[in-house]
Amino acid sequence: MNHDEVRDYITVIDNEGAEKEFAVEAMFTMEDKSYALLSSGDETIAMRITGEGEDQQLVGISDPEELDAILSAYQIAVEAEPAELQ
């Protein structure tokens, strides 16, 4: 993975124990829940952030309606305030 851009990277371990590195594309709050949008190559995933401080964990989102709402809200936010290209 190319780390030339300034961004945070995390390693996600799936249910089968496989590790994969993701770039943190965005973190946001919706309806009092925090979420992270992560990307690795052509794969993008959204995960819920649980816990606080040092005890934060990323949890997969199994509810398709919740996932659709998160991705829709994120898309609207990006279209309203697109990031400036450097």
Oligomer: single chain
What is the string of SSEs from the N terminus onward? EEEEEH
What's the alpha carbon Rg, rounded to whole Å? 14 Å
Q: Determine the fraction of residues in helical runs and give it as a percent range.
A: 10-25%
Task: Describe the strand arrangement of the main beta sheet, using strand numbers.
Answer: 1-2-3-4-5
Unreliable runs: none
Report on this model:
- The protein is of the alpha+beta class.
- Helices cover 20% and strands 43% of the residues.
- The protein contains 1 helix and 5 strands, in the order E-E-E-E-E-H.
- A 5-stranded antiparallel beta sheet has the order 1-2-3-4-5, with helices on one face.
- The two termini are 20 Å apart.
- The mean pLDDT is 85.
Question: What's the arrangement of secondary structure elements?
Answer:
Elements: E1 9-13, E2 19-30, E3 33-40, E4 43-50, E5 57-60, H1 64-80
Antiparallel strand pairs: 1-2, 2-3, 3-4, 4-5
Key descriptive features of the protein:
86 residues, alpha+beta, 5-stranded antiparallel β-sheet, 1 helix, globular
Summarize the structure.
By secondary structure, this protein is of the alpha+beta class.
